[in-house]
Request: fold
Amino acid sequence: MIEVENVHFSYPNGVEALKGLSLVIKNGEFVAIMGQNGAGKTTLVKHFNGLLKPSEGIVRVNGVETTKTSVAALSRNAGFVFQNPDHQLFSETVEEEIAFALKNFGFEKEAIEKRITWALNLLGLAQYRKTSPFLLSGGERKRVALSSVLAWNPETLILDEPTIGQDYQQKEKLRQFIVQMQTQGKTVVIVTHDVEFVAECNPRVVLMKEGTVVADGEGREILTTPEVLSQSSIVLPQIAQIFMKLTPLGLPKNIIDVYEAKEIVLKALEKRRK
Amino acid sequence: MVIIETKNLSYTYPGGTKPSISDISIKVEKGEFVLITGPSGCGKTTLCRCFNGLIPHFYQGELKGEITVAGIDTTTHETHAMAKSVGLVFQNPENQLFALSIEKDVAFGLENLGLPREEMRKRVDWALKLTDIYDLRERSPHEVSGGQQQRVAIAAVLAMQPEIIVLDEPTSFLDPLSAEKIFEVIHDLNKKLGITVVLVEHRLDLTAKYADHIIIMNEGKVCFDGDPREILSTEETRLIGVGIPKATFLYHILRKEGMNLGNLTPLSSEELAKLLQEAFEKA
Reply:
């Protein structure tokens, strides 16, 4: 459980990125944090593994205040994948990159071997095991960063813009993986601008603006409320855009899923023909 | 007029075991808005690096085949000789920015062109305003957010007013509304000034509607090349991992159920909403 109580945070240059923010994320939840550039999303999630400590207020992770423990101790439970993989990758080979944290956490050699193989297969990177991460494409480097965190199987996964540079199939795999994490009771927090990805996953959405939370609720509701989205620079998912234009025909407006959209259109059309 | 042409172009990075792109033969017409897409790792970025000569001059490695961009053979002309003709916006803006202020970064290329001071001032301000970073001009490009850095990289290329702009996932760090605004600016320059645009993108929901021409790559090769509406109508594009726009996909699955929506594949929510309205009115 992550508890954020009335947290303020200012960077050394004086910019106040969080302005009295409160939020509770329960174990096993899947939360998408959305909002415009500079809203404080990344600053907020960096508090979840202690990379940043609040200037004022309290952040508790599983009951422990982040100011009273180390980033190393918090990281074991909360794996963090950065927005830009180049801020994270440094090893000579993909394999060493993944082994690094596992060694630090004191895993046995055999376990390390097994976990590397598992993480590489999961993200379709097996053929790059001995390759330098810097020879890979942007999208592939992003997956190496992700696999290096998944390998130690943290209870909470924090992903900053995980879908950048990922194609449709990779995104679908990521979605399935997140669903699998949830069935194991794990917590997943993503920071994202990718409205189409959020529309497909339908997680809890926390919408931020200027260091505060402006909306918090089911994805389907928030992503179909244009007045709320526009103040955070988020556009409606494409399916919601279509249904917004079809309300004069008596169709519902809170639709984000393409297959649900199909059923609704076909039924409405049949009704009209009768 | 053809402005970019490659014939059987193949390239292997130094130390690479297999080619990153192989046997690429494409033609881009002057003034086109071309969208290049395909699964992660398919060679999109590598192809872009050939367009301004970064491959082979900076990356070295082994390049085979022919490539002509704006009438110049990029294999025999250094990257700086291409700078006037081709502007490349990199995937990662940090690889591109280096000056002490955003304004200086945007002015750098113009200084190298030897433009008069007033002309430079005019173009820098124009580019900063178009990309909505005029107020940030005195800040360091390294202390602003990833999204703002992307705006700086785009402004620096726009200021050069090259014949061809190549953009490699230029708005990945920007929020959707800001990304849309940037794409509108680029589309506008394409239509008004006739600048040829080559855009690499996965997010076709945002960008398919601008494209006159789409190239889909897979495993280093071109597998589809042509009209976006025709190509995005095929089942195979989805199978290889191309995220076709949701509106286009919904159109396909509704037609499969026998709904009459006409033969022109929609590429945006506006287009599909219109088709659906018409279908309901007829019913």
Q: What stands out?
A: The mean pLDDT of chain A is 91.
